[in-house]
Fold this protein.
Amino acid sequence: MSRKKLILIAGIVAAVAVLAVVVALVASSCSKKEVEEPQAEAPKPSVVKEAPAPPPAPEVYPLTGLPLDDKDAALRRPLSVKLENSPEARPQLGIGSADVVYETITEGGITRFNCIFQSTVPAEVGPVRSGRNSDVTLVPQYDALFFMSGANDVVLGEVAAAGLADMSHNKASDLYHRVDYRAMPHNLYLDLARAYELAPQIGLAATVETPPSLEFGPSKTDGMSDAPGITVPFSDAYVAQWAYNADDKLYYRSMNGPTVDAGTDQQVSSANVVVLWATYVPVLDGATLGVDMNSGGAASLFFEGKRVDGTWASDGKTPPRFMDANGNALKLAPGKTWFEVLGVGSEIAVG
């Protein structure tokens, strides 16, 4: 091969080599550019807020402070029933099963009960009578379903305006019946065990997420005195008496003889007796008495054979709370509670 051809071939090879290098550099530059080119940020996942945890289930019955034997029962809506207390109505049926009882003056020194059932619901209670002004401020404290035979127009208007869960004779007549062993108007009785079944059918909730509760536990106070017996004079004919039994740590009630539950033939008892002083106001031209159960005032608490004095108050949405003279919280003994609501200035006897 001639020298001229060799030089030509060498030039071609060199040119190809240079071209290869150029191609490689361009490819490298493009690749680097692709690598260095900023990437679009990936969308951040949206933050989902967790729903608040439901309130813890109660460990005790909210209105007695006693251990639960049925967690579902602890979330049942309280049942507030207006029961009669005239001699013609005694002995009342189911009264001994109430977790809480309020005794208030209606007119002429006559008292009537508002019985609140929650941990134990008897099949039948009675006699049921008309609602009164005191119920309008009392029932909302317990967020209760309210049962009564009816009421005068003024009270009915107040019940409606307050938004009470009205399950009166007019609203839930299927639950009520009249017995033949008592004369009217003392013979209206209530099938209380069916209340939770019927409530949703008339648009009322049968359960609550956070049940209203009283406060139970030891009370830190130095102002306690012995109280083996209590006499609460509403009037000459209506005097409630309570006698303490140290064996079971309960107070037993009498009014013109032992107060007995007709369903059990047992004398009514309570772990706590609380005397609340409140201002009674004549309504309907003095025909009946009204009382604001949110007004607060003086109180005497009796439990375990002891008495302690203090004050009571309610915000209208929770049952009453108590404090002693030093500002310490007063708490109830676990068990049932009876509230005796006396007029301001009335006196009780202890001993």
